[in-house]
Amino acid sequence: MRIGISLTSSWGGTAPSAAAAAMIERTAAAYEAGLDSLSVGDHHGQATNYVQNTPILGRLLAEWPDRRVGALFLLPLWNPVLVAEQVATLAALTDAPFIVQTGIGSGEAQFGAMGASQNTRGVVTDESIRLIQELLTGELSASDRLNVAPTRLGMVPSNDIEWWIGGHSGAAIRRTAEYGNVWYAGPVLADDDATRIAAAYRTQCEARGKVPRMTARRDVLVLDDGERAHQLVDDAVARGYRGMSREQLLVGDVDDAVADAQRLAALGFEALIMRCVSDDQNVALETIKVMGEANRRLAAVLP
């Protein structure tokens, strides 16, 4: 069991330059804390600042030279050849494995902004993954469904490309087993639901002769002072934090973080990917530090 970080990319009314600077500072803190992986998100057509994944990740790699790194791509919103080219370029900036996280996405506003349809997002995601994976191996590939003529990339990654596929539906689990390396569970799953979906995923992997791997994301606020963390989270939930309930968040101190990670490990997850609940930079930096301590404790007791 290891702990990684998914950086917040949405920064509300923060000035764009300040948002980028905050992400750089959090990345440097996560590296110093010894976290295992770093990733950034993907969203489009936002009325507020949302730092886009590929340019910011290129900058963040200066602070994150040699550990697993990646980005979310909501594939129905992207041209698949462009994704393959972006991934190949980013992967060239590190010797570590590069993680492609993906899901089908949602929201009429962002689909409309990108000229995409939610009605076909499942089949488009499947076909995009197939095409991108072929392109990243240097194969000549094409897709009538996606209107992509026969294409071959000259820039092919030499490092491993891992596919972390999210979603909780039957179609998402089938997609993960067929195309992915890791099922990326969302932060809202109760243990019973996670156990049920994990069992279905293992069955799908077994049918394909694949080894199941699972990672879970958690929204986190942990501090040296656990009581203060609880107070801050109560305030965030009262303001409607991501529509999530208090019980869906990891809150407290380093002991709480270790216990939560051990619970996930018992369910079969190999990593916990944290996202900071607080927009306050000092609180976020302390949360990263405490999660780094939890990661060191876990390394001593779990494989």
Give the helix/strand layout.
Elements (H helix, E strand, L loop, with lengths): L1 E5 L9 H18 L3 E4 L12 H8 L7 E7 L5 H12 L6 E6 L4 H6 L7 H16 L4 E3 L4 E4 L9 E6 L3 H10 L2 E4 L5 H18 L5 E9 L3 H13 L11 E3 L1 H13 L4 E6 L4 H21 L2
Helix pairs in contact: 1-10, 3-5, 5-6, 6-7, 9-10
Average pLDDT, rounded to a whole number, is 96
Q: How many structural domains are formed by the residues?
A: 1
Biggest sheet character: 8 strands, parallel, barrel
Instruction: Provide the spatial order of strands within the biggest beta sheet.
Output: 1-2-3-4-7-8-9-11
Unreliable stretches: none
Number of strands: 11
Helix and strand pattern: EHEHEHEHHEEEHEHEHEHEH
Beta-strand percentage range = 15-25%
Task: Identify the overall geometry.
Answer: globular
By CATH, the topology is: TIM Barrel
Beginning-to-end CA distance, first to last residue: 6 Å
Helix-residue proportion: 40-55%
CATH class: Alpha Beta
CATH homologous superfamily assignment:
Luciferase-like domain
